[in-house]
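Deliverable D2.4 — example input (structure tokens):
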């Protein structure tokens, strides 16, 4: 006879999780005033703080997921490290959470399970036995949150391991340089 153990873990409400996930997604430009010292004393200059790729460095991984060019660069970096299954799984889970139809939930859950979690999965992700076993036991009747724990583990793995290396990579430096060049062109070509 099979009995299920239900473990209740503290979870933040979904709106707070989404806020954490998307707070740094905004691509805003901030202007600040700087008072000159020395011979130019009293003169104020306005400087624009760059956002976009340069602002990823101190911020979390979330921002890169929201920006198409950043996501593409991060995916390419993960592919070069043979760990692109992590971002693919994370993105598949994000898409899965938007599913409304119970029929589609079941089919999408099975696809994610077969591709990333099940025995002999072609893009198997690195998660602990307990999480994998819990998903395996419940995949026959999946819920919209059935991959949350695995997604959290993979997100943390990328945030603590892959993403810091990406920020030090040549790919990231090239992306920052391209973005800066694009900004410079726009200053000289105001019609762009």
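Example output (designed residues):
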């Amino acid at each position: 006879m099979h009995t299920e153990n239900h473990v209740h873990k503290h979870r933040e409400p979904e709106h707070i999780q989404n806020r954490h996930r998307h707070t740094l997604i905004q691509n805003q430009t901030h202007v600040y005033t700087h008072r000159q010292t020395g011979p130019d004393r009293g003169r104020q200059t306005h400087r624009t703080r760059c956002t976009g790729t340069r602002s990823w460095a101190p911020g979390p991984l979330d921002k890169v997921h929201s920006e198409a060019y950043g996501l593409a660069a991060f995916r390419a970096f993960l592919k070069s490290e043979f760990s692109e299954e992590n971002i693919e799984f994370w993105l598949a889970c994000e898409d899965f959470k938007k599913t409304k139809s119970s029929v589609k939930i079941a089919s999408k859950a099975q696809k994610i399970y077969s591709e990333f979690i099940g025995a002999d999965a072609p893009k198997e992700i690195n998660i602990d036995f307990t999480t994998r076993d819990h998903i395996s036991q419940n995949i026959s009747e999946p819920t919209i949150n059935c991959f949350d724990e695995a997604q959290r583990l993979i997100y943390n793995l990328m945030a603590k391991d892959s993403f810091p290396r990406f920020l030090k990579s040549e790919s990231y430096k090239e992306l920052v340089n391209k973005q800066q060049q694009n900004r410079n062109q726009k200053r000289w070509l105001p019609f762009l």
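Residues 62-165 form a domain with the Regulator of G-protein Signalling 4; domain 2 fold (CATH 1.10.167.10).
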